[in-house]
Amino acid sequence: MYSKREEFLWGVATAAYQIEGAWNEDGKDESIWDRFVHTPGNVADGTTGDIACDHYHRMEEDVALLKELGVNAYRFSISWPRVLPQGRGKVNEKGVDFYRRLLDKLKENHIHAVVTLYHWDLPQALQDTGGWKNPESVFAFQEYAHLVFSRFGQDVDLWITHNEPWVVAFVGHYEGRHPPGERDFATALCVSRHLLLSHGHAVKIFRGENLKTPIGIALNLSPIHPFSHDQEDREAAYRFDGYLNRWFLDPLFRGQFPQDMLDWYAQKGFAVLPLQEEESRLISQPIDFLGINYYTRHIIKRGSQSLLESEGVRLSNREYSDTGWEVYPEGLRELIVRLTQDYAPFAIYITENGFAYPDVLEDDGRIRDAKRIVYLSQHLRELTQAMEQGYPVRGYFVWSIMDNFEWNAGFSKRFGLAYVDYHTLRRIPKESFFWYREFCTRKKTIMT
Ligand code: FCB
Fold first, then answer.
1. Where are the alpha helices (DSSP H) in 153-294?
2. pTM
3. Which CATH number is 91's domain given?
């Protein structure tokens, strides 16, 4: 069993809704994503994750692909409504069985399992009673976590409670681009508090089960740079940092929301109650690692329109990916340094890093994704340097093993090391797949 001091993890990541498909099979009930994608206009290309990569039926083939890639870790998420169709109560044994078979296959192939409890697919039944804005959701998550720990506790090597709670709270409840599609800032703030509390409860239950493997959380974090040296731009950048990064980091590592943000929101008419002592203790209890999903940085200047009075800037001389995210490899090391200095996590895992590109399957059957290789190698260089400087990084995961359903962008964005032909569902390794295989093999021999 993997322990806190062991082997560096070189892996790839996925999420249930993005790859599994089988959205209403074998007892699985609807999630908020199922509901959202079935509403016209919500997904850019009008597609759904009903079938996605059909991983539910092709799981063995996919584990074989992981084996071929040569990674020693695989990060995936459990679909809550697959194991608890109504969110609470009756367990769907067929759903549990799917993950049991996956875990067994991974073990058979000597691939460490990294499991995310919540990668955004809340059971619709829970949304029907208010979802994450209902304080009851915290207790529902507790029950779900307990079920998953008790069934799979012995076979998972690393646990992640939440994936990117910022996205759940603000993209789902303020920007409305993700389900439940709400556009209310006060709701988003309330949801962020409940997500943090549910994380705390899950960690507490985990410790109570006496499980010895590491547990942590994965946040989407970015360096925030001011557009200019002007005081107003610098203040706007710091505010955006408070919104995106510190709003979750501070409670998790210091037990309180950042005061400057509490003040700012209050001044804008959104008073947030500071965390009470018990809440604070629960949320900031020690975790074994911080997971960082890193894709890009943000350049921010002062703006008058938004609630934050800040505005993102796009530079003409920089490279941007197909999702419009700036390629900024230096940001990875910058983040690792900053997080270690400011929050001193026990360990850091880069739980996601990757590049979207409109890859083309050429006539000779190859996918020449040279830009992705450059992206990955530059980020891995930064990572290696941070490690050489003694920063506590313990693993790295490429998003993703294969192209998949990119949320509200549908199938229009390809992030995979393997290309998925959505007509035949064939997985075809891209050049980056072979490149990463080489890289992992070399690193694994140096670093064990
Ligand atoms: C992250 C998500 C992941 C994937 C990548 C591209 O924000 O965690 O599911 O969509 O972006």
1. 165-166, 172-173, 185-208, 231-241, 247-254, 259-267, 277-283
2. 0.98
3. 3.20.20.80
